[in-house]
TrEMBL record:
It catalyses: 1,2-di-(9Z-octadecenoyl)-sn-glycero-3-cytidine-5'-diphosphate + 1D-myo-inositol 3-phosphate = 1,2-di-(9Z-octadecenoyl)-sn-glycero-3-phospho-(1D-myo-inositol-3-phosphate) + CMP + H(+); a CDP-1,2-diacyl-sn-glycerol + 1D-myo-inositol 3-phosphate = a 1,2-diacyl-sn-glycero-3-phospho-(1D-myo-inositol-3-phosphate) + CMP + H(+). One of its GO terms (cellular component) is endomembrane system. Keywords: Cell membrane, Lipid biosynthesis, Lipid metabolism, Magnesium, Membrane, Metal-binding, Phospholipid biosynthesis, Phospholipid metabolism, Transferase, Transmembrane, Transmembrane helix. Contains a di-nuclear catalytic Mg(2+) center. This is Phosphatidylinositol phosphate synthase. It is an enzyme of class 2 (transferase). InterPro entries: CDP-OH_P_trans (IPR000462), CDP-OH_PTrfase_TM_dom (IPR043130), PIP_synthase_PgsA1 (IPR044268). Its EC number is 2.7.8.-. Homodimer. Mg(2+) 1 binds at residues 65, 68, 86. It comes from Microlunatus flavus. Pathway: Phospholipid metabolism; phosphatidylinositol phosphate biosynthesis.
Length: 213
């Protein structure tokens, strides 16, 4: 999450990392606690119409996604399990943020249209992440695109924060932008994998083709 700011994370978050390590807190605990905080902040605050407050709560816990990685790197405990836990937790946190916005439109705005747009942003965002994970599991390189995960998160949180400050139509614009750019990103990544696959012998693995991942 927020890959573009990781270069600054060591400097800014270093004291927090050292504090937690000194008290025996594990990176996995930080990952789980951060995810719970994001889920509760998004699903409690956003449906109630507490937009800017929810953004502040979510943002605080989003930072844990950088802290746990720094802790694992500092202590030399980085592992496939930690990477798996981090990635799967990210999917849950994303779903909670977009789900909370969807509920805001449904309950506070009584707008089926914008709830549907928020749902589209959620679906295409999750699809984008799945395409990347599935492609990499098959040995392809897959990434980038018009709206990577960090971009999507920043857009939705900034839109919600400004909407909470009564800036008109900014959240609707953010959700429409996300739905469109996430859809484009899905097809960009699919095309990226297709181009790589064209250079391989044509075959399908009968053990995995058509099976859910």
């Amino acid at each position: 999450m927020l890959e573009r700011f990781r270069s600054l994370s060591g400097l800014v978050l270093g004291p927090v990392v050292r504090f937690l390590i000194a008290r025996g807190v594990s990176p996995d605990v930080v990952t789980v606690a951060g995810t719970i905080g994001v889920v509760l902040g998004a699903l409690v605050c956003f449906p109630q119409g507490w937009l800017w407050q929810g953004v502040l709560v979510v943002t605080v816990f989003v930072v844990s996604d950088m802290i746990d990685g720094l802790m694992a790197k500092t202590t030399g405990t980085a592992s496939p399990w930690g990477a798996f836990l981090d990635s799967t937790s990210d999917r849950l946190g994303d779903a909670a943020v977009f789900g909370g916005i969807l509920l805001f439109f449904a309950y506070q705005q009584d707008s089926t249209l914008w709830a549907a747009v928020a749902l589209a942003g959620l679906v295409f965002g999750q699809w984008t992440s799945y395409v990347k994970a599935r492609a990499e599991s098959l040995g392809f390189t897959c990434g980038g695109g018009l709206a990577a995960r960090a971009d999507r998160l920043v857009i939705v949180l900034v839109g919600a924060f400004l909407a909470g400050l009564d800036v008109p139509y900014v959240l609707e614009a953010a959700m429409a932008l996300l739905a469109v750019t996430s859809m484009i990103t899905v097809f960009q990544r699919i095309e990226q994998v297709r181009r790589q696959a064209k250079g391989l012998p044509g075959r399908r693995d009968p053990a995995t083709h058509g099976q859910p991942a």
